[in-house]
Predict the structure.
Amino acid sequence: MGNVGNGRNVRQGLTLAALLTGLLTGCAAAEDDAGATASTAGASAGAAAGATAKAAARGGSVGAAGSACELPVAFDVAEFWKAKAVDAKKASPATGDMAGLADALLRQGPVTMACEIDAKPAGKIGFLRVWTGEPGAADARAVLKGFVTAEKGASKAVYRPFTSGDVTGAEVEYVTRSELLEETRTEHALAVITPRGPVVLHLGGLDDQEHEAMLPAYELAKSTLHVNAA
């Protein structure tokens, strides 16, 4: 078991290194779902599976006033997952080499990270992150495409509409490739438009196994998502 644990730690470190390398080398455009149908067939099958994943047990909620993250939306958080607000202005240095790196970590396309919900207390490796943006004319799908396009190595994006109660928006499943690890992993995200601006909810993960294990937490958030009063 010790060797397995060490291998997992090494792999996690390589993944983080790959992320930093990707941020320093720029962003690659994601493939639109209007592109090659054959290349997205696998992702389509995965999207169907993700859409029917069983929601996780509820452990609390975020988004409302007084919660760990005050957001334009609110939703339930899976049991044992821990939420922490992210203040991009305080986290990003004003000048210097680190400013560009911090900006790349905290901003993706049209949105900025506002909340990070850590799966480690539940025994998983990954985060459910909430990104917010300024009000504008873009619809949910356009915001989501801007978010995916800005991610290094993103491709095979499959977009579809989604509804949660009175909330409507867009959802995407796509893959990202790590050149360092020479493998791909699946990611999910959704976007909604609120009076306070767009909101993107994103689920990544160390690898496909971790991502699949965390999908119930994503489904819980999606099924309970609602817009807070302005």
